[in-house]
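Journal club prep — side note

Before the paper discussion, L.F. wants everyone to see what a predicted structure for a comparable chain looks like in token form. Sequence:
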Amino acid sequence: MRNPPLALQDSQGIDDCWEGADMAADHDIEHTVRTRLRTLRTSFGWSLDELAGRANLSASTISRIETGKRTIGLDVLLPLAAALHVDVGELLSVDGDDDVVIRPTARSGQGHTVWMLSRPTASTSVMKMRLTPTRRAPQQQVHPGRDWFFVMDGRVSLHLGDRQIVVEQGEAAEFATMTPHAISALGGPAELLVLFDRDGQRAHVHG
């Protein structure tokens, strides 16, 4: 039997190469996603059980996903992404560090709008916050760590327990967050740059 034409041999070889490359790429993406899921969970300081409760999955399922013993499907990826406060696209991204620009989106609540200026996996989070005066007194929070903020525009009242401290435009404040604390705008809208660690992010952003 005659050998296939050279062109056919080359075509078959190319197909085999593409198939091998696709399999390798899929493996790399899965490994990246598993690493990102584990890194996000540990950076939040969450156990497998805690993430399982937030994602409505079993701890054993999450453990098998992180260790590569279970395939990653949308049935688990979507609830995990929601629980970890990250877009599915970020988990699946293979762009590496080529895109260094962070494009924040606004998230609004009662009397405030925030823009996260750091990536979800960062150990220190940076946030821009816009406050507007409200009739209701701000609810004070307590969590481990320290918070820091800089007033870019306007003026705010920093509530620390029974104390109220006015912080003007161009001034900054740093304080231990085991003291009940909250920030409110005074006399008009105010814009802040806020830095906090993971404990602060869980309390102020994901709490």
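L.F.'s comment for the group: The chain is about 35% helix and 25% strand. Keep this in mind when we get to the figures.
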